[in-house]
Hints:
- 2 copies of one chain form a homodimer.
- Chain A is mostly helical.
- Chain A has helices spanning about 30-35, 35-55, 60-75, 80-85, 90-100, 125-145, 150-175, and strands at about 105-110, 115-120.
- In chain A, helix 2 (about 35-55) packs across helix 6 (about 125-145) and helix 3 (about 60-75) crosses helix 6 (about 125-145).
Amino acid sequence: MSRAETPDPPENAAPEDGAPDDGAPETPDRLRRRASRLLSQLTTQSDRLINEGLARVDARKWHYAVLASLQEYGPGSQATLSRRSGIHRSDMVGVLNELAERDLVERVPDPDDRRRNMITISARGRRHLQHLDEVLDDLHDDLLAPLNPAERDQFTQLLTRLLDHHTRTARTARSAP
Amino acid sequence: MSRAETPDPPENAAPEDGAPDDGAPETPDRLRRRASRLLSQLTTQSDRLINEGLARVDARKWHYAVLASLQEYGPGSQATLSRRSGIHRSDMVGVLNELAERDLVERVPDPDDRRRNMITISARGRRHLQHLDEVLDDLHDDLLAPLNPAERDQFTQLLTRLLDHHTRTARTARSAP
DNA sequence: CAACAAACGTTCGTCTCACTAACGATTTGG
DNA sequence: CCAAATCGTTAGTGAGACGAACGTTTGTTG
Lengths: 177, 177
């Protein structure tokens, strides 16, 4: 095999046989630099952190999303909540089951439109939401620990801009054709 | 708690019946602001973008990770590649099957340690990796489209700092106890 | 008014991702 | 020499995001 093309023998010097690579995982730069990879890796960590934190108070991300939507915009049908919270409507069923089990929301058939269920947040739900807000504040403090307040703002703003851009282009791409 | 039991009737005025919420999904602020949510939503978009782009050239994220590791640090066992690329060793099997099917890597038993397979990148694999790099450059251009070069640097640097922090604390948390 | 289209809640299934558990084979260290 | 660790592999779990299809109900239109 005359390695005519790209004749790079790995210049980063593979650890050969002696001492392989204990301790320092040595991830290639091109990998580490990719924003997509950074995003998914960090999101994995973030999700783990948030999920574990919420599990300690018998909650999930979705619970917070739904309760917050209810608190801010008032009661709504499951489809409405689905749109507001970004939870797929086929997953909303289970979430509302869990919330109803815990008496955090009430689900009653809408008399005006018998296809719908009207979902209402309960007093207990409001208290729980308040608690979740505190828990999430703490968790985000851990999540963003290495950043000072200004950097945290920068970070969330950059994230917001990127997300807005992509949700818009995704929306127009799927409704137009 | 001075405000007895948060008896807030939704002040944001739910759209009631007239015009529900067409067009503008109206996600509550507390939800939209949470960095964890921004991260997971953006990662969903990012993953979709990258996966679709790579699928067009018959590739996956993992392919790139493994090929890049091989190119930069030379051949290695599956376990070594697993540590370098961050792919779980039980998932590495399938990835290497796919790469070997496409003749992008060679997998031969290591005579010095008959537990291991030595994985080597092929000439075809090097060409493919080069192509993938271009494809990924373009895809990241889409991903980071709303940001100017300086902001892109800021963004990846913030991500890197956060990820480093959490991978370190995670590593020490699991090896120490 | 009849007929068709759309929305709603629900169930089921798919795909990806990260990860755990266990196995047989092999190598290493005390 | 024997126990412990490593390696590759298979199988399975639990999120998360999503699509397809259903029966029910509402709306729209000819």
